[in-house]
Amino acid sequence: MKTQLEKSSSKVFYWPIRVYYEDTDCGGIVYHANYVKFFERGRTEFLREFGLSQQELMKQNVAFVVSRMDINFKRAARLDDMLIVSTQITQVKHASFIFYQRIEDDNHKIYCEATVKIASVNPTEMKSQVIPSAILTEIKRVS
Amino acid sequence: MKTQLEKSSSKVFYWPIRVYYEDTDCGGIVYHANYVKFFERGRTEFLREFGLSQQELMKQNVAFVVSRMDINFKRAARLDDMLIVSTQITQVKHASFIFYQRIEDDNHKIYCEATVKIASVNPTEMKSQVIPSAILTEIKRVS
Amino acid sequence: MKTQLEKSSSKVFYWPIRVYYEDTDCGGIVYHANYVKFFERGRTEFLREFGLSQQELMKQNVAFVVSRMDINFKRAARLDDMLIVSTQITQVKHASFIFYQRIEDDNHKIYCEATVKIASVNPTEMKSQVIPSAILTEIKRVS
Amino acid sequence: MKTQLEKSSSKVFYWPIRVYYEDTDCGGIVYHANYVKFFERGRTEFLREFGLSQQELMKQNVAFVVSRMDINFKRAARLDDMLIVSTQITQVKHASFIFYQRIEDDNHKIYCEATVKIASVNPTEMKSQVIPSAILTEIKRVS
Questions:
Q1: Out of D33, D63, D72, whose CB is closest to A36?
Q2: How confident is the model at residue D3 (pLDDT cuts 50, 70, 90)?
Q3: How far is the C-alpha of D37 from the C-alpha of B44, rounded, in Å?
Q4: What ipTM was reported for this prediction?
């Protein structure tokens, strides 16, 4: 899975993240696993912005899980930094889709970027399942 | 709720905790909220040691939630430190019980201590409910 | 340390918190240690709002650490909930001060409340030290 | 960066991880970012086992940071599960090296696997720097 080029035509959603003590480690910088949390906040707010509530999806017996992440750590963020997560959908398939996400600051310096594959699964058995067509249409609308 | 004196008669359970990067913050020390996680690991292992599985309790429609914590932060732990959580039950009532817990190192230096009130609730409604008598007997056995 | 009554005269600062997946546990509710993180975000934003940067304090060789927390867990928050942390200083002494904090929703339902004692320490030795008078004046100004 | 095949000749180190409440989310499974923490514990214990203390390295003005992770999430772990992280070094270069890691259970079911690129940087400026030859020799010894 190669890093996706930013698609100029797709909807990009921006979400601000402030770095708190909880996010840092004794190296003085943001602990690497916490960027993974930041990316998830970005995807959640992306879906909320475009009207796709994860709790609603659960009621329709569809769950989306992260099945793959390629993460590139490029620069170290620090306490009090104000970061921006950008999120867009770059590819949609029958049972999965791909987000390209980036964490930057106000000066467009990139701290971290990731390609995130989301798989549609049955919530009880966690087995891959085709995305219901109504939801697939919604995902294509925002990609 | 006063800090409980250590009861000499009760069962005390010890559980080791290694401090990793994930536990520290940019002040160079363990982030204070993470002691709360360490205490929970200690209580979980205490219950496991004495045969009280939380998943088993769930099946009997009993959930235990933390309803109160008084925490005393006394000394700062650091990366790679080897800590020991001690856990004991100091009081048992009809719908709640109290743990006294301490985090120390090998030299009996105390880093953090806490009194933790656990309430018995109905898992679906999260309302207080009397602890079933069979489970109450078990809790009294290990206190 | 008793729970402080809300002081009507002091400055109260409100900060919104959205509940994400990372904040919840398999009980379906916010994991109790994460309220401790939420409280810390509230205090950090309180200090930022009133012009007291923790990084600035560090440069003046003053560090503030949490030395005591009394936490009352009253209601379970869930995924996607929008919470509000209220923060105020209720007491100021020579080497410590006390925050009273509350986590509520839009309908003033209280989820969690805490009394948090902050101690002034020397950052290198972590020993208690008197708060420098200029900073003490600032803290009294916002309490 | 392709997923590395397991090198049969290299040293593989195994580290047990118990799943606690703190690791799970309201989907009932381990929150995906927490596998990233588990992998870091595995690498830390690998280095400790083979005599490479990260605090010692810091004193020699060498810091190792995660510069890239490719993670494959294959199966959902749950509360109380006992997992095993396996860790090995699969490639060593002048200023970086690569870990291949896997999280499995007792029955060799794979939950998550990752290829982790570690870069050697100057701790103050976070710029890439060649690994000192004495340390490089140590890393090659355990790969």
A1: D33
A2: very low
A3: 20
A4: 0.90
Is D26 in Cβ contact with C25 (below 8 Å)?
Answer: yes
What is residue B133's predicted lDDT score, i.e. its pLDDT?
87
Q: Determine the distance in angstroms separating the CA of B28 from the nearest CA of chain A, rounded to an integer.
A: 4
Cα angle A63, A64, A69 (rounded to 5 degrees) comes to 155
> Which residues are within 8 A (CB) of D107 and not within 5 positions of it... i.e. 6 or more apart?
none
pLDDT greater than 50 at residue A111? yes
The fourth-level CATH superfamily of domain C10-141 is: Hotdog Thioesterase (3.10.129.10)
Interface size C-D, in CB pairs within 8 Å, comes to 32
Q: Cα(C117)–Cα(C123) distance, rounded to whole angstroms?
A: 17
CB < 8 Å from B in window 83-142 of A: none
Helix (H, G, I), strand (E, B) or coil at D5: coil
**Residue A9 — very low, low, confident or very high, per pLDDT cuts 50/70/90?**
low
Whether the CB-CB separation of A36 and A47 falls below 8 Å is answered with no
Extents of the domains making up chain B: 10-141
Tokens standing for residue C127: 């020993």
**Is D24 in Cβ contact with C26 (below 8 Å)?**
yes
Mean pLDDT of D113-124: 92
Determine contact, residues B75/B83, Cβ cutoff 8 Å: no
Judged by CB atoms closer than 8 Å, whether chains meet at B55 and D21 is answered as no
Of C68, C73, C123, the CB nearest to B65: C73
Q: Using an 8 Å Cβ cutoff, are C74 and C107 in contact?
A: no
User: Given this model, what pLDDT does residue C102 score?
Assistant: 98
Give the CA count within 13 Å in the CB-facing half-sphere of B87. 24
Mark the ranges of chain B whose per-residue pLDDT is less than 50.
Answer: 1-7
Question: Chain A residue with minimal CA distance to C18?
Answer: A41
Task: State the pLDDT at residue C52.
Answer: 79
The separation between the first and the last C-alpha atoms of chain C, rounded to the nearest angstrom, is 18
- Average pLDDT, stretch A99-112? 97
Instruction: Read off the pLDDT band of A4 (50, 70, 90).
Output: very low
Measured between beta carbons, the chain A residues lying within 8 angstroms of D29 are: 126
What three-state secondary structure class fits C44?
helix
Mean pLDDT of A40-68: 86
A25 is catalytic: yes
Closest-CA distance, B124 to chain C, in angstroms, reads 10
pTM tops 0.90: yes
d(CA D85, CA C15): 39
Residues of A in contact with C20 (CB under 8 A): 37, 40-41, 44
How large is the average pLDDT for residues C6-26? 87
- Contact partners, residue D96, CB within 8 Å, separation at least 6: D67, D117, D118, D119, D120, D128
Residues 6 or more apart whose CB falls under 8 angstroms from that of D57 comprise D63, D64, D135
